[in-house]
Amino acid sequence: MKKISFVDLKRQYRENKTEIDLAIKHVLDSTHFILGEEVEQFEKEFAEFIGVKYAVSVGSGLSALELGVRSLEIGQGDEVLVPVNTYIASASAVSLVGATPVLVDCLEDTFNIDAEKAEKLITEKTKAIMPVHLYGQVADMEKVLRLAKKHKLYVIEDACQAHGASIRSKMAGGFGIISAFSFYPGKNLGAYGDGGIVTTNNKTIVDKIRMFRNYGQKEKYKHLLLGGNSRLDNLQASILLVKLKKLRLWNAKRLENAKLYNKSLDDLPIITPKIFPNYNHTFHLYVIRVKDREKLMKYLSSAGIPTQMHYPIPIHLQPAYKELGYKKGDFPVAEKLASEILSLPMFPELKSSEIKYICQKIRDFYRG
Ligand SMILES: Cc1ncc(COP(=O)(O)O)c(C=O)c1O
Predict the structure, then answer these.
(1) Whether residue 203 is found in the same domain as residue 87
(2) Residue 263 is inside which H or E element, if any?
(3) 51 contacts: CB under 8 Å, gap ≥ 6
(4) Residue where a domain stops, chosen among 205, 228, 244
(5) What CATH number should be reported for the domain holding residue 192?
(6) pLDDT tens-digit series, residues 78-96
(7) 53 C-alpha vs ligand 1 centroid, how far in Å?
(8) Residue 100 resides in a domain
(9) Given CA atoms 65, 149, 111, 249 in this order, what sign does their dihedral have?
């Protein structure tokens, strides 16, 4: 029996070992570990890649979101519109600054925030809307930006799953006043530990986040703000510098893999992800919709194929958010999707023979 990984980071490391090892060695030899040359260089190159003026690196994607929200002076008594079908961090970033996430249902065909439903939830307390570019597909930013302009809301992009994704040629991370990315190892651009970055065109925000991430210091031992410790380290930056150069190629491979999946699953009772014209979907995750999900998962697992669910429990049904007072049935689209979604193995180095094997096994399942 074949054994396939959900994400195999070893293949990528093996292919890039010489360059990565050299970059790590350079930092080790320099013994300059915190906020060094590599961090600055990476921030510069990442900002250029996204097409914004500034990028400030931090310790994680959650930190990027939290410090971003904080930099807009959003806090107690304020509300932020957040999709209900995202990773918990999108909402927790809002809660961590003392504000309230107001959850919004999603669109069935893109899994992304439903801007029309969001509009109905706007109150005088609403300060921002946080589109999450789920699975690597940019949310409908035309609608989100129009809504934000009409109601004077900040747009905070959660681009933690969308490095390099775009609409036409405009990249995720360049639409909002601030955007957050995660460099968790399995992301399209992943570090070898935790990491994150905020992108923006706003210098005031950059200055604030630079202080927030480093004890509120503007200069050493001069603390202008109350800040924490959330810094990308130089070792991670040196690895990310090597990997950033490959990101376009890796994203193109992911898209190729997704197209092969779509084609191979076309005639089965499965809803495959749509690839829309003008949208460059970077397939951080390849998510299908099926009935009989649990049975299919079990069947695939016994054939050596791991699958996952992103995410099985929408945020309004998470115990951590009990106090928000939502109940089952409040978000019908997200709840329906949560019961049907299934993530299949996806990474750039996944071979077409492996995809064909996975699809053959799914076919066997449906043939009984
Ligand atoms: C949509 C989304 N937002 C935020 C995060 C948080 O990123 P991190 O794990 O780097 O804190 C993640 C990470 O999985 C994510 O997928």
Answers:
(1) yes
(2) helix 247-265
(3) 170, 171, 174
(4) 244
(5) 3.40.640.10
(6) 999 999 999 999 999 999 9
(7) 23
(8) yes
(9) negative
Same domain, 175 and 283: no
Question: Which residue segment(s) compose the domain that 22 sits in?
Answer: 9-104+111-244
Alpha carbon of 160 to ligand 1 centroid (Å): 5
| Ligand 1 center from residue 179 Cα (angstroms) | 12
Nearest protein CA to atom 12 of ligand 1, as residue: 160
**Single-letter amino acid, residue 163:** H
For ligand 1, which residues put their CB under 6 angstroms from it?
60-62, 86-87, 89-90, 132, 158, 160-161, 182, 184, 194, 196
Ligand 1 nearest atom to the CA of residue 63, by list position: 11
The pLDDT value recorded for residue 368 is 83
Per-residue confidence (pLDDT) for residue 261, from 0 to 100: 98
Residue 4 lies in a domain: no
- Retrieve residue 95's tokens: 């809660």
Ligand 1: which of 161, 189, 287, 311 to mutate, judged by most atoms within 8 Å of the beta carbon? 161
276: domain CATH number? 3.90.1150.10
Pocket test of ligand 1: the residue of 57, 60, 62 to mutate, having most ligand atoms within 8 Å of its CB, is: 62
Model-level pTM? 0.98
Report which of 138, 140, 159, 136 is spatially closest to residue 148, judged by C-alpha positions: 140
- Over range 114-126, report the average pLDDT: 98
Residue 37 vs residues 42, 59, 236: alpha-carbon distances, Å: 9, 17, 12
One domain for residues 138 and 38 = yes
Which position has the token pair 């016994």? 302
Residue nearest to atom 8 of ligand 1 (CA): 61
pLDDT higher than threshold 90 for residue 168: yes
Last residue of a domain, one of 191, 218, 244: 244
